[in-house]
Amino acid sequence: MPDAATQTPILAPFPAPTPAPPPSRLVDPHGREITYLRLSVTDRCDFRCVYCMDPDQRFAQRDQTLTSAELLAVTRVFVGLGVRKVRLTGGEPLVRPDLIELLHALRALPGLEELVLTTNGSQLAARAHDLRAAGVRRINISLDSLRPERFRALTRNGNLGQVLTGIDTALAAGFERIKLNTLILGERNGDEILDLVRFALAKGINLSFIEEMPLGEIDRRATDFYSSERIRALISPHFPLVPTTETTGGPARYYRIPGSPTRIGFISPHSHNFCADCNRVRVTAEGQLLLCLGQEDALDLRALLRRHPGADEPLRAAIIAAMRMKPAGHRFEIGVPAVVGRRMNLTGG
Ligand code: SAM
Ligand code: SF4
After folding, report:
1. What is the pLDDT of residue 156?
2. Which of 61, 125, 315, 319 has its Cα between 20 and 30 A from that of 30?
3. How far is the CA of 43 from the centre of ligand 2 (A)?
4. Pocket of ligand 2, candidates 41, 46, 47: which has the most ligand atoms within 8 Å of its Cβ, to mutate?
């Protein structure tokens, strides 16, 4: 009789189970692959836009927001999981003092193909060339009015001249693409739609109109809803809009104006739900992983980062597991109070 050491193990006829290969892609339960991360690098801002913040907005304590090393670690893990595009946003990313150093570090991540940024433009005059040199290829600049007084009222303290100089500096800095983002807030700026199109045409840059989303309890929401269709109908008699299938990998639907490089986009969370093609997640300045702009589901990455400093694996495992929670879509409804208490400055617009 063989002794115990030489006995054939019970499972010998079966091959030893091989561990499942670790996923190198993030796919949610609805079959959507996540390749795009929107990273909020600060919740702070030099503006207080009426649809985004309160006049006396309070911000997170500095030790509650992610450090540059933590932002880099989170991004490294996402890029290792197949994310190819990262957009820095906020709050206003340019108020972060170490932004340029952070960009240089992010740009060096192998596998990251696109590093882009959204800004209110207030500091572009001084920083556009640095951003370009740090590897930012495309920028979005928010602009809701071309009238100085109105601009100041909508942003509560913004200086339009400074932003326009910033746009010109960005043009000179040679970004591959510049896009203006405009929120039409009913009667407050609906009369500027054509002026904004003319401005984009004159500069040879793109322009997207965004429908306002009910994020946070804000009592100054537009009362007169301008759907994308209404804006398009207003533009069409003056500038023919030819639909194009071109995409920047986001939710906008684009139109060309013949004879011009300018494309007009519409981001229509209400009138044209884009959730079926969602390829993105967000990380807030406080390190919350948000699986959907319009839902509350979140995972606290900051806690993991601080519990396991320097270790990517716990973060990686948690992010993979979190994808199972990604909802099918948002639940915004016109005229219905916010289902999401979080403001856009925290969400990372
Ligand atoms: N501060 C930068 C800026 O303004 O471009 C980046 C962050 S901001 C939150 C990003 C974008 O979110 C802006 O274009 C802004 O117009 C948009 N936004 C803010 N609140 C919004 C809301 N309630 N609905 C739709 N878009 C909103
Ligand atoms: Fe600041 Fe952008 Fe929010 Fe305006 S929309 S308050 S610029 S973060």
Report:
1. 95
2. 315
3. 9
4. 47
**Residue 189's domain spans which residues?**
32-347
Residue to substitute in 142, 266, 342 for testing ligand 1 pocket (most ligand atoms within 8 angstroms of CB): 142
Structurally, the chain folds into a number of domains equal to 1
Contacting residues for 8 by C-beta, under 8 A, at least 6 apart:
none
User: What average pLDDT does the segment 87-111 reach?
Assistant: 97
Task: Indicate the DSSP class of residue 24.
Answer: S
43 lines ligand 1 (CB under 6 A): no
308 CA → ligand 1 middle, Å: 33
H helix or E strand, kind and range, residue 212: none
Least confident of 5-14, 236-245, 268-277: 5-14
- What CATH number does residue 118 fall under? 3.20.20.70
Residue 141, classed as helix, strand or coil, is strand
State the amino acid at position 42 in one-letter form: T
Confidence of residue 247 (pLDDT cuts 50, 70, 90): low
